Amino acid sequence: MKNNTETSKFLSYILRHEPDSIGLVLSSDGWADINELMQLANTSGTVISLEQIHSIVKNDKKGRFSISEDGQYIRAVQGHSLKTVDLNLKETTPPANLLHGTAQRFIESIHNEGLLPQERQYVHLTEDYDTAIKTGMRYGKPVVLNIDSHKMQEEGYKFYQAENNVWLTLTVPPAYITIHK
Q1: What is the pLDDT of residues 39-70, one digit of tens each?
Q2: Which end of the chain, N or C, is less packed with Cβ atoms under 10 Å?
Q3: What residue ranges of the chain are covered by domains with CATH 3.20.170.30?
Q4: Which residues of the chain fall short of a pLDDT of 50?
Q5: Which fold has domain 4-76?
Q6: Taking the CA of residue 56 as centre, how many other CA atoms within 13 Å lie in the half-sphere pointing to its CB?
Q7: Separation between Cα atoms, residue 31 and residue 138, nearest integer Å
């Protein structure tokens, strides 16, 4: 059995990006049958127990996963690259400003194109400066961007909030972005 960090990364990969890699089929709103997930993972060489899944979901500080009320299903709460998954998020009013962590090497591109979802369905934003810094550090020298989400929403852009409090939007044009000081 892999440790929880490795298994969490495996679950993120399977539930957000490549369920087909082990033969798993997600529902249209991203749910996977836990027993089927364990069986297919075990068959593919990644041994996962029910206890380990529950431990990962309970202890994940970022709240990446949720288990259905009946305990039969699991899903990633955001971060999907799968266009077939619709989490049925409800549009909501964001705080006036949100943050996005990135690396210094991407600033020129962001200045020209804004923030794009890349391989994911949405651009991910946060209210928390430390989270933005940690996100930026994954890609190089971190830079925190300030997003004028109030103005964006006034001008028709939609915002959603995932179960784990990550803010989501389809794109952030350059006009709404400044470097956080």
Answers
A1: 999 999 999 999 999 999 999 888 999 999 99
A2: C
A3: 98-179
A4: none
A5: Arc Repressor Mutant, subunit A (1.10.10)
A6: 24
A7: 28
Tell me the angle at which helices 4-12 and 50-59 cross, rounded to the nearest 10 degrees. 90
Instruction: Say what the pLDDT of residue 81 is.
Output: 86
Residue 162's Cα: distance from chain center in Å? Answer: 8
Residue 63, number of CB atoms within 10 A of its CB: 14
- Which H or E run contains 123? strand 123-125
The CATH class given to the 98-179 domain equals alpha beta
Tell me the pTM. Answer: 0.80
Torsion of CA 64, 68, 72, 78, to 10 degrees: -30
Strand order of the β-sheet with 65-67 is 32-33, 73-76, 65-67
Cβ neighbors of 8 (< 8 A, separation 6 or more) are 56, 60, 64
